[in-house]
Design a protein that fits this description.
alpha+beta, 4-stranded mixed beta sheet, two-stranded antiparallel ribbon, 6 strands, 24% strand
Length: 103
């Protein structure tokens, strides 16, 4: 029996924030594969979500993630590691300030 992918506690809030600014978000799973496939204004982004409330050792990429990210960077571009809503919004080109988000 296949087990469901383990998700970081902050992933749901990040997905909600991305969708609030018009992004299309798909959760991915698989050995080393990033957590989120995000589309915004004709551009595709790959985001790896890490939980900043966990110890630093638990925020590191796993060995399969290191391998996947390295291989992908050579052919498909970067996969951005995000820990907060602000980082996720910046990663997809939104401007974050204390007064709110500018898509």
């Amino acid at each position: 029996m296949r087990r469901a992918a383990k998700r970081d506690d902050n992933e749901g809030a990040i997905i909600d924030a991305l969708r609030d600014v018009g992004c299309r978000v798909t959760q991915l799973s698989g050995a080393g594969v990033p957590d989120l496939l995000v589309g915004r204004r004709g551009v595709t982004y790959l985001l790896e979500v890490k939980d900043p409330t966990k110890p630093k050792r638990d925020q590191r990429l796993t060995e399969p993630q290191v391998q996947w990210h390295g291989e992908w960077a050579g052919v498909g571009g970067p996969c951005v590691i995000v820990r907060t809503i602000e980082e996720a919004l910046r990663a997809v080109g939104c401007v974050w300030s204390s007064s709110g988000v500018r898509p």
